[in-house]
Each structure stands twice: as C-alpha cells, then as structure tokens.
Amino acid sequence: MTSLRPFHATDVFKFNPTNLDPLTETYDLNFYFSYLARWPHLFNIAEGLDGTIDGYIMGKLESSPSYYINSEHYLPFHAHITALTVAPHARRLGLARTLSSSLENSGDEYDAWFVDLFVRKSNKVAQGLYKGLGYSVFRVVKDYYNDDPTDETKDSEDGWDMRKQLKRDVHGKHVRSDGEKYMVSPDDVW
C-alpha cells in the first residue's frame, strides 16, 4: 500500500533510487528546496509502507509576466509539472496517474487554464503515459534539452510541450491536437 504525502526537506536523502532512471531529470538541491518553499502543496511523494519513496511530483502554478501578454507565446495562469517520476519497482501501479491527478485537481482549485509539462522527444514511454492521461502535444521546442542521451553526436534534443485542459478551459482554447506541427525556439518558452 502506497500513500501520498507532502514532500519534506529530509526526503532529499531518500529519493535517489527514484531518480536513477536515465530519463528522469535530476536537479541540484537548491532547485528542490525552492519548490518546497514556494509550492509545498504541489510537491508530493508516494511513499511505500516501508518508508521508501515510490514516486514524486514537483509542480507549480505560474503565468508569463505581464509584459509578455501581447506575445503569441504568452502563457495564461496554469499548473506545470516540473518533475513526475516513479521508481522502477513501483511502476505500472497507477502512481503516475494518481500523482498527476493531484496536481490537476489543485490546478482546478486555483482556476488554472491547463496543466503543462515538457518531455524529451525520445522519451516514448513518458509520451505514451501522458497521452494516456489526456495530454496532447501543444508545440515542439527545438533544442530544449542541452543533451541527447540517444545520440552522443548531438548537443541537444527537442522537447515536447504537452498540455491537458482543465475545467476553466471549456472550449479547449489552450490545447491542440496537431501540436507536433508547431515548432518554437527555447527563447519563445517562458
């Protein structure tokens, strides 16, 4: 039995086994602590009965700055999944769905338009997961990642900006079904 609970600062000493997946983005400690300080209600873990961290989600609520409002790339108020990962021993149990649902519910509570996330173009497993959860590609960000684990000769990899509309976006204004046709540069992403 796994239970959800808020992330605690001391969890940084226990989550390395969850982060060992080569497709899980790992950050420096300051990054984790900044999320814990700013969005503690959106940073949750799935904890096993033995106290192991089976998975976690780091989320935030944001919008583009007001000076960006006239840009075609302006992002209205939305929830964002910064990291969602499940340890190999706990996969295929629905934990990713449970964790992402918790952020989606928070997004609805705060009246956000959508939830978005970025995923590597080569990460077919994560793309399948997110599509199964109702996300679709909104746009492709050229050279979003500074490395390409699938090809050592490349210095970067494209990222997919995937979105799922929330209750506020009744007409689906902030999602699209053909997002793989829309290419932008990292400078266009706020």
Provide an overview of this structure:
With 190 residues, the chain is of the alpha+beta class. It is 20% helix and 29% strand. The chain is built from four helices and eight strands, in the order βααβββαβαβββ. The protein has an eight-stranded mixed sheet, sandwiched between helices. Strand 4 (78-86), helix 3 (95-109) and strand 5 form a beta-alpha-beta unit. It is globular and about 50 Å long. The N and C termini lie far apart (39 Å).
* Fraction of residues in helix: 10-25%
Largest sheet: 8 strands, mixed
- Beta content comes to 25-35%
Radius of gyration: 16 Å
Given the helix and strand composition, which structural class is it?
alpha+beta
N-to-C order of helices and strands: EHHEEEHEHEEE
Features:
190 residues; alpha+beta; eight-stranded mixed sheet
In short:
The chain is an alpha+beta fold. Helix content is 20%, strand content 29%.
Give the topology, please:
Layout lengths: L2 E4 L9 H4 L9 H10 L4 E5 L5 E10 L15 E9 L8 H15 L4 E7 L3 H9 L3 E10 L11 E9 L17 E2 L6
Parallel strand pairs: 4-5, 6-8
Antiparallel strand pairs: 1-2, 2-3, 3-4, 5-7, 6-7
